[in-house]
């Protein structure tokens, strides 16, 4: 039986990817941020997951305003790196796990989630920056990935409650897969930031840290946050945090926080990072 052994959250700021690609990680500006991922890079090497179900949002690379799925799942053998206007990032092609992905798609749809099944899709910084932060710049990614894309670009995005319930359904789907796989679920994006308008550059550290606290202490409070509160407190792009709730829903009722990192700023964004373990996974080990 496949099992979910851990959950990871991290921001996916495009400038982080550029800093890695241009070898600027040791500069005065960027070094404190990358130091915050040292523990996680060592941890994940020991964990050696087989598959990551990686929840992210596309940034007009694979989708446009012509077609806007609320939830989409990538079922391809591989996912090429998208060109976001400056050429594709110099990172490996992302290898999928079509058997698990198709099983997830079937299970989630029969569990009454309307997933859009994607058999050909380029992936952008929303997916590749998290991989680079934890795995560095290998010649090939050491893990297979099932991408789950969430619309947090065009109104209306899904609610936090709906995202949490999707995570619960992902857990049921993974546990019903008959291969012995070590699966992690990652929720990416956030934290507080706004890219345009009079509040461009907004960062709300109290909101961000309370959100980090409640990922383990009181996730039910996070499930109830309405869209307008994300907009008011975390900025127009802070809505990306609903994707963290998909990961959290997949971990079950109780979790332990293994690691936390928070850094301001990275470009014009607050960076948050958590590593969580479901308590039942700890007991099983």
Give an account of the 3D structure.
With 285 residues, this protein is α/β, with parallel strands linked by helices. The protein has a single domain, classed as 3-Layer(aba) Sandwich (Protocatechuate 4,5-dioxygenase, Chain B), CATH 3.40.830. It contains 11 helices and 10 strands. It has helices at residues 14-21, 31-35, 38-47, 98-110, 125-135, 160-175, 205-214, 219-223, 227-234, 242-250, 279-284; strands at residues 3-10, 51-56, 71-74, 78-79, 94-95, 116-118, 144-150, 182-188, 255-266, 269-278. An 8-stranded mixed β-sheet has the order 6-3-7-2-8-1-10-9, with helices on both faces. A two-stranded antiparallel sheet has the order 4-5. It is globular. The two termini are 14 Å apart. The mean pLDDT is 96.
Number of helices: 11
Q: How many angstroms does the end-to-end distance come to?
A: 14 Å
Secondary structure tally: strands: 10
Strand content: 15-25%
CATH topology (level 3) name: Protocatechuate 4,5-dioxygenase, Chain B
SSE order:
EHHHEEEEHEHEHEHHHHEEH
Helix content: 25-40%
Poorly predicted runs are none
- Spatial shape: globular
How is the quaternary structure best described?
single chain
CATH class: Alpha Beta
Q: Indicate how many domains the architecture comprises.
A: 1
Largest sheet: 8 strands, mixed
**Order of strands, widest sheet:** 6-3-7-2-8-1-10-9
- Overall pLDDT: 96
Q: What is the CA-atom radius of gyration, in angstroms?
A: 17 Å
């Amino acid at each position: 039986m496949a099992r979910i052994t851990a959950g990871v959250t991290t921001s996916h700021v495009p400038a982080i990817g550029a800093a890695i690609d241009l070898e600027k990680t040791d500069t005065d500006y960027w070094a404190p941020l990358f130091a915050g991922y040292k523990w996680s890079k060592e941890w994940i090497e020991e964990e050696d997951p087989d598959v990551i179900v990686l929840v992210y949002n596309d940034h007009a690379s694979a989708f446009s305003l012509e077609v806007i799925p609320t939830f989409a799942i990538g079922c391809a053998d591989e996912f090429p790196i998208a060109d976001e206007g400056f050429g594709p990032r110099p990172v490996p092609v992302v290898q999928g796990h079509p058997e698990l992905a198709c099983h997830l798609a079937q299970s989630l749809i029969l569990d009454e989630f309307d997933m859009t099944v994607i058999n050909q899709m380029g992936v952008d910084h929303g997916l590749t920056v998290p991989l680079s932060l934890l795995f560095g710049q290998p010649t090939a990614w050491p893990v297979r990935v099932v991408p789950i894309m969430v619309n947090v670009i065009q109104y209306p995005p899904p609610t936090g409650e709906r995202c949490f319930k999707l995570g619960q359904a992902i857990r049921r789907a993974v546990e019903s897969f008959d291969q012995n796989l070590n699966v992690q679920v990652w929720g990416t994006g956030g934290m507080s930031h706004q890219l345009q308008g009079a509040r461009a550059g907004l960062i709300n550290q109290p909101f961000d840290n309370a959100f980090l606290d409640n990922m383990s202490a009181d996730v039910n409070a996070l499930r109830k946050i309405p869209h307008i509160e994300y907009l008011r407190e975390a900025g127009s792009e802070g809505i990306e945090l609903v994707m963290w709730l998909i990961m959290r829903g997949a971990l079950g009722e109780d979790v332990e926080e293994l690691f936390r990192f928070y850094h301001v700023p990275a470009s014009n964004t607050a960076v948050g990072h958590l590593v969580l373990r479901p308590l039942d996974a700890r007991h099983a080990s």
